[in-house]
Amino acid sequence: MRSVKQLTKTKTQGTDTKQTIAVWASKEELKAIDNMFKSAAKTDLRLPPVRMKRIAAAWLDMKTEWSEYGYDSKAKVTIKPSAKDITNYDKVMDIGLKLSREDRVLIWSVAISWASKPYGTWTRVAKKYNCTRQTVMNRYRGALQRAHIAINFYNMI
């Protein structure tokens, strides 16, 4: 992702010049931030659940025949996230902590919505915020812009 810190000179009163930072993100940069949050949401769904350590007092199921060992129809195949996924997840968490709570909740709820379903639904998130899906899209775009500003301000990527 290319840096967006472009210094521009603006005239103030008198002969002083003040440097300001132009931080508006392009569509490609917003899409990159969006994909980063969505991949972090997929990683979050693939992480193992947090469990309390406790002593289990239960007997194991005893198999009656030798042929029953090795196959379990109830067992789920879980795909564990890679080190790259965990690193991206950690970066996204750091970026999220720099945002306001409203932006963080909105971005994360949209990302989880897209990670849990292959098509993602704006209406599901819109029902949570009690507004239309277009309003949620606009708020989401604004939250991504503020995330882009946070990334550039804190030099996070």
Shape: elongated
Which structural category do the helix and sheet elements fall into? mainly alpha
Sketch the topology as an H/E string, one letter per element: EEHHHHH
> In angstroms, what is the radius of gyration?
23 Å
How is the largest sheet built, in terms of strand order? 1-2
Could you give the count of β-strands?
Answer: 2
Q: Low-confidence parts lasting 5 or more residues at pLDDT below 50?
A: 1-13
Strand content: 5-15%
Question: What is the average of the pLDDT values?
Answer: 80
Question: Separation of termini?
Answer: 8 Å
The helicity comes to 40-55%
Largest sheet: 2 strands, antiparallel
- Helix segment count? 5
Give a quick summary of the entry.
The protein has 157 residues and is mainly α. 52% of the residues lie in helices and 8% in strands. It is elongated and about 65 Å long.
Fill in the keyword field for this structure.
single chain; 157 residues; mainly alpha; 52% helix
Describe it:
The chain has 157 residues and is mainly α. The protein has helices at 27-46, 83-98, 101-116, 122-129, 133-154; strands at residues 6-11, 17-22. It has a two-stranded antiparallel sheet.
Write the SSE topology.
Layout lengths: L5 E6 L5 E6 L4 H20 L36 H16 L2 H16 L5 H8 L3 H22 L3
Antiparallel strand pairs: 1-2
Helix pairs in contact: 1-2, 1-3, 1-5, 3-5, 4-5
